[in-house]
Amino acid sequence: MPKQVIAVVGATGAQGGGLVRAIQADPAGGFSARALTRNVDSDKAKALARLGAEVVKADVDDLASLRRAFEGAHGAFCVTFFWDHYSPEKEIAEARAMAQAAKDAGVKHVIWSTLEDTRKRVPLSDPRMPTLHGKYKVPHYDGKGEADGVFRELGVPTTFLLTSFYWDNLIYFGSGPKRGPDGKLALTLPMGDKKLPGIAAEDIGRCAYGVFKRGSEFVGKTIGIAGEHLTGAQMAAELTRALGEPVAYNAVPPAVYRSFGFPGADDLGNMFQYKADFEAEYGGARDLAFSRSLNPQLQTFAQFLAVNKERIPLG
Ligand SMILES: NC(=O)c1ccc[n+]([C@@H]2O[C@H](COP(=O)([O-])OP(=O)(O)OC[C@H]3O[C@@H](n4cnc5c(N)ncnc54)[C@H](OP(=O)(O)O)[C@@H]3O)[C@@H](O)[C@H]2O)c1
What we know:
Blueprint: E1 4-8, H1 14-24, E2 31-37, H2 43-50, E3 54-57, H3 63-70, E4 75-78, H4 82-85, H5 88-105, E5 109-114, H6 139-153, E6 158-162, E7 165-166, H7 169-172, E8 178-179, E9 185-189, E10 195-199, H8 201-213, E11 222-224, E12 228-231, H9 232-243, E13 247-251, H10 254-258, H11 265-277, H12 279-284, H13 288-294, H14 301-308
Parallel strand pairs: 1-2, 1-4, 2-3, 4-5, 5-6, 6-11, 7-10, 9-13
Antiparallel strand pairs: 8-9, 10-12
Helix pairs in contact: 1-8, 3-5, 5-6, 8-13, 9-14
């Protein structure tokens, strides 16, 4: 039987990379990965080629390149890159390009890596958190959630995949514990005593692979994944165990987090507030047993830390 091709956007990145590696690690699974990248000569692209993935040049801002890259594919994994440009409008336009290309190429199953449109629960008139850029509460969520409608409007057979906070943010995104003036480590989050669903980024791609393996079961549905739901105190306790040094939990109000001043601090402050204010719904949409059924290798935070603790910068 010829293998079914899965075209993977963001293949050299966190989510897409995990999917390419999951597909190529399962040669008997009936799928093969087509890795999309803007630069087929990069070290990351070459590493995917060495795994046996087909590596093709494509840019989500170039519809014709997406059409070529999706041609003949059974499935496509679609993701956007908010933190490269901070623009929900650009994400929506890119989602439209990917949906159109998938439709034109006759792709049978798209997974759209999405997040909630928080405005459905917190309308712009709700004063609990500031409205940002005039029309968003959590820009990097709202644009993705709004773009769900594009896949529906174009009639693309789509599974809507709600992802979770990457624990890898502790390594790459400045979210790790920091030393205070007293020299002691503290993990700062505006989550109070509420639980934050988190996941090892590599597990997102593995879960997406589980979705493709289950055929059309989730097409038209929204599903969510997480590796564990942990309070800030629980995360600090796991970090303490892993690092062998005390890590305190520094719970700050969302307004304080918004005021930290780094790019996107207001967006992230609103995001954490949303997760805390709607803890039951947000966590409920990211069931752990379901996630594990898609990906039996799903890591806990402790397992993630056991492998990655040395990579966390302790500034
Ligand atoms: N951090 C979190 O906790 C978290 C949680 C949930 C969701 N998210 C969302 O995840 C998304 C990012 O996904 P990720 O973390 O997998 O990305 P990533 O690791 O930053 O990787 C992005 C990859 O996509 C490629 N890329 C960038 N711009 C492109 C373009 N115009 N056309 C084609 N490819 C392009 C780049 O590859 P080349 O250079 O090889 O082209 C890059 O390697 C964001 O929208 C973010 O909001 C993040």
